[in-house]
Amino acid sequence: MGYFPRGEIFQGQINYYILILKAIEDELDEPLTERVHWIAGTSCGGFVAILLGSGLNIEESLRLVLSRRHQAFCGNTMMFPKNDSKGIENLLKQAFGQLTTMAEIKQQKVLVTAAKIKSAPPQLVLFRSYAPRITPREYEKYGFMNPEKILIWKAARATSAAPIFFESFHGLADGAIFCNNPCLTMMTDFFRIQKLERHKNLKNEDKIGCIITIGSGVEPLVQLGGIDINLSSPFALGKDFMNVFGRGKNLITLFMYQCTSSHAVSVAQAREWAHSLGVPYFRFSPRLSRAYDLDSTSAEGIFDFWFETEARHRYYSI
User: Fold this and answer.
1) DSSP calls for 214-260
2) 270 CA to centre of own chain
3) For 54-91, how does the pLDDT look when each residue is reduced to its tens digit (9 = 90+)?
């Protein structure tokens, strides 16, 4: 079974993931981590993946993110980034330890994504708690990092380095820039490792039992005007400034929504791939009545988000 949370860094969304997980756990009547063996996440989904992989249960994870939200989103004396990165870095070090490595996550195979942004296009970086059964000398040859050399807090910091909200981390930024829905990424990793180990004449008969994937909610569609910027000459900018500004803003909004979207095409692709393998695929991503600020820590916004999640869950449980 695999669990794949997606997400931008948003306090309400982290709690939303945990609420959905709690509902699934209640249906199973046993700890979810006893059934889930592979966990992948991006941004705050990556944070949740590491929490569960590190041994925290669902209630402990919820308590942590609620009690420490102001430490992570501590604001900044500058306009951008909106938050001082020292806040979230101190939180991650306290939660996971300064020297704990990804290799110490034993019960589940955990994967979190990041994006290398010092070149264009950005490159996908995967922090794994696992590796194929090859020698450490072969890791680089096949594109793997040694889990024993990856500090957990640094992996969590890299995947949560959302532009505007936090500084990049050693040339790495939020995995959502490249991979906002990690389901396809982990499915690819699963079969790639299987193929590699079989090539090495190692027995690997692992199969995917089912896939659980959790989105960050589907916001209402935002109607945009045109995005075409037509200028006959630089001098026309002053005359038509408001029109150019509005269309430029629409273009930025379009790219922002595309960058932070985790549904639509990627979900359909993962679902069809899973079904072609005979693997059950479960997607949870409630429709939201409005958009929420990504870095909001207000209790009102968090509980509004919770209420919509709980209402949808109860509606479909009837």
Assistant:
1) E---BPPPPP--------SSTTHHHHTHHHHHHHHHHHHHHHHHHHH
2) 16
3) 999 988 988 888 888 888 888 888 878 888 999 999 99
The 10s digit of each residue's pLDDT in 230-274 is 766 565 566 676 777 777 777 777 776 666 666 668 889 999 999
Domain extents in the chain: 2-218+263-317, 224-261
Nearest-5° Cα angle at 294, 292 to 299: 65
> Could you say which of 43, 129, 261, 285 is catalytic?
43
Catalytic site includes residue 43: yes
185-190, long-range: CB < 8 A, 24+ apart: 185/40, 185/111, 185/113, 185/124, 185/126, 186/2, 186/4, 186/38, 186/40, 186/111, 187/2, 187/211, 187/270, 187/273, 187/274, 189/111, 189/126, 189/128, 190/2, 190/38
**174 a catalytic residue:** yes
- Is residue 305 within a helix (H) or strand (E), and if so which, with residue range? helix 299-317
- Look-up of token digits 């072969």: 138
Q: Name the stretches of the chain with pLDDT < 50.
A: 6-11, 318
CATH 3.40.1090.10 fits 2-218+263-317, yes or no: yes
Catalytic residue among 54, 174, 216, 261: 174
Contact 88, 160 (CB under 8 A): yes
pTM score of the predicted model: 0.85
